[in-house]
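Here is the promised in-class demo. Please do not try to memorize the tokens; focus on the logic of going from shape to residues.
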């Protein structure tokens, strides 16, 4: 859940599979035929645009 609450536990969904974990990135990467790193880079680029960075 670390990605949406900041707890630092990358693989702990805190009992709710809607929270963003490493599993989320792995599933997204698999669907897109990408590595997890590639998927994270694409997401980071988009977030930077949305946040005006």
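The designed amino acids, position by position:
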């Amino acid at each position: 859940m670390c990605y949406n609450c900041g707890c630092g536990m990358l693989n702990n969904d805190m009992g709710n599979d809607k929270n963003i974990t490493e599993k989320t990135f792995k599933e997204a990467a698999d669907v897109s035929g990408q590595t997890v790193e590639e998927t994270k880079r694409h997401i980071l680029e988009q977030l930077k645009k949305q946040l005006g960075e």
